[in-house]
Amino acid sequence: MPTTVPAYGEEAAERLASMADVTASDSALRRFLHGLPGVDAVGLQARAATLGTRSIKTTAKAYAIDLAISMIDLTTLEGADTPGKVRALCAKGLNPDPTDRTVPRVAAICVYGDMVATAKEALGGSDIQVAAVATAFPSGRAALPVKLADTREAVAAGADEIDMVIDRGAFLSGRYLEVFEEIRQVKDACAREDGTAAHLKVIFETGELQTYDNVRRASWLAMLAGADFIKTSTGKVAVNATPPVTLVLLEAVRDFRAAIGVQVGVKPAGGIRTSKDAIKYLVMVNETLGEEWLSPQWFRFGASSLLNDLLMQRQKLSTGRYSGPDYVTVD
Predict the structure, then answer these.
(1) Which member of 73, 150, 160, 163 is catalytic?
(2) Buried b / exposed e across 288-299, counting CB within 10 Å, b at 16+?
């Protein structure tokens, strides 16, 4: 996966430039965001539930399990994290099942900024990305200079991706331009001296945004500000990723590409623990966006325990039985 942000095509650049008036003032941005079509909550929940009933069997299930493994951001974000724990997580990401070398590697290892150098060293020259949470994760409660310094330090340490959190208080207060400018400046802070940049994932903490309409508005706000990925949650609150909320994000990136010509990734995070759940999300992606988004470059799972269940189910498909509880490592 490339770690440089792809240059926008001429047409997409022109379309983005045409949106400059939308972000020229707080009132203009508010008019645009509140002018987006409202979300039919009942219809949204019904569609998400219907997609979740699709039956995936045999070879299709095996393909989906391997695809889901390749999309995982294997995560440790605890106050008790140590270099040893991060190295162990990296070893698992590189070789998820030591008894089966055909298991794909995960997409990324996600850590706090002070663990980036440790993760980079442990991953060596592999293609696994190192993602760092920044901007006063998970609360987002810090002054902008602190958030920018947090981002720059993680990028300087070698982070390939930055997961930032928006200021939910500002967003819910209707200070949309303030949130837009913060995302834009964090995006600028992701740049490296060699002209490349870390990818920026913008976390909404959807469990705190109260309505599906707010989730849609936050999605468009982040994409207009330059997000490479939009992400549901930090995994640190009671309500994290849900199928209906993820469907709102998927529809937003679909509509954004249709309008602007720029493709943006989606990452549901928190609460996705089983293979069955992961496959439901993949069905949702395929039905809403098509096969083009079924790639780690455009869709990720933020998870810590999901990988273990995927490995257990993968082994069940290949051998016809489950292994004992010590088959997978406890992270």
Answers:
(1) 163
(2) bbeeebbbbbbb
Q: Which of 201, 267, 277, 280 is catalytic?
A: 267
- Residue 17 neighbours by CB distance under 10 Å: 10
Q: Would you state the pLDDT for residue 186?
A: 97
Count of CB atoms situated within 10 Å of the CB of 107: 26
Token pair of 293 as six digits: 């988004």
Give me the pLDDT at residue 4, please: 38
Residue-averaged pLDDT of the chain = 91
For residue 9, pLDDT over 80 is answered with no
Residue 280 known to be catalytic: no
Q: Which pLDDT value is given to residue 6?
A: 44
DSSP letter, residue 191: B
Catalytic residue among 120, 147, 201, 231: 231
Phi-psi region of 64 (alpha: psi -120 to 50; beta: other; left: phi over 0): alpha
Query: In Å, what is the CA distance from 21 to each residue of 168, 207, 259?
Result: 24, 30, 15
Residue 127 is a catalytic residue? no
- The C-alpha angle with vertex 54 and arms to 48 and 55, in degrees rounded to 5, equals 155
Q: Is 163 a catalytic residue?
A: yes
- Please write the tens of the pLDDT for every residue from 166-179: 999 999 999 999 99
User: Which alpha helices (DSSP H) does the chain contain, by range?
Assistant: 10-18, 26-34, 41-51, 58-70, 83-94, 116-123, 144-156, 168-172, 176-189, 212-225, 243-260, 275-289, 306-319
Amino acid at site 65: I
What pLDDT, on a 0 to 100 scale, did the predictor assign at position 3? 40
